[in-house]
Amino acid sequence: MSRQVYFPSTFFDFLRDLSKNNNKEWFQENKTRYQNDVRDPLLNFISDFSSPLKAISEHIIADSRPNGGSMFRIYRDIRFCKEKIPYKTNAGAHFRHIAGKDVHAPGFYLHLEPDNVFVGAGVWRPDTKTLNKIRDAIVNETKQWSTVIQGLEQKSICVYSENPLKRAPKGYDPNHPLIEDLKRKDFAVMQELTESDAQSDKFMNTVLDAYKNSAEYMTFLTKALDLPF
Q1: Nearest partner of 163 among 182, 177, 183, judged by Cα
Q2: Which of 48, 8, 33 is nearest to 205 (CA)?
Q3: Given its phi and psi angles, is residue 69 left (phi above 0), alpha (psi -120 to 50 degrees) or beta?
Q4: CATH code for position 190
Q5: Does residue 161 form part of some domain?
Q6: Each residue of 82-127: pLDDT tens digit?
Q7: pTM value surpassing 0.90
């Protein structure tokens, strides 16, 4: 496995500067800096991560294409946003299941932002059909799901649950012992890291270990969706 520093201080320096100058004029003047200090290091990490990732699953892909691959675009979609700032002040990658076509597919996530570095795993904002498949699996395999969640807690991995339903989803027992899980709109978990972690030559190994810790969780979700893991 590669032992090198992919994300030195210059990576985070650019993102900090961007947060203070989030406009098209500044970005165009500093676009070469973005490409050299942020885009290229992240693409290099993704490329080198492809082989180690196969040790967890051959069905999760690290795609180093600059467009349409694992790396998220720096440009924000401001069509439906109140805040019209044009650029993201973080960099990230989604290593999605080969059967998926977008960010809503099962996969692993890497988030790189000044003072906010973390990794994630799971399914974010799935459609109703996908969501109900996962809920059905939780109902049918309650004991297994509970064991998986307990395993995550023992490894200090946090369950992400933003804006859950206020009531039980239609067709599900409001008195089910796992009703709070059934109310979730996302099935994702996260583990916090640091900028120091990201700037270490051991960071790739750190990320890989974090994803390994979430493997049982991913196995449950992909099985629920009739996908291999």
Answers
A1: 183
A2: 48
A3: beta
A4: 3.30.930.20
A5: yes
A6: 777 899 999 999 999 998 876 678 999 999 999 999 999 999 989 9
A7: yes
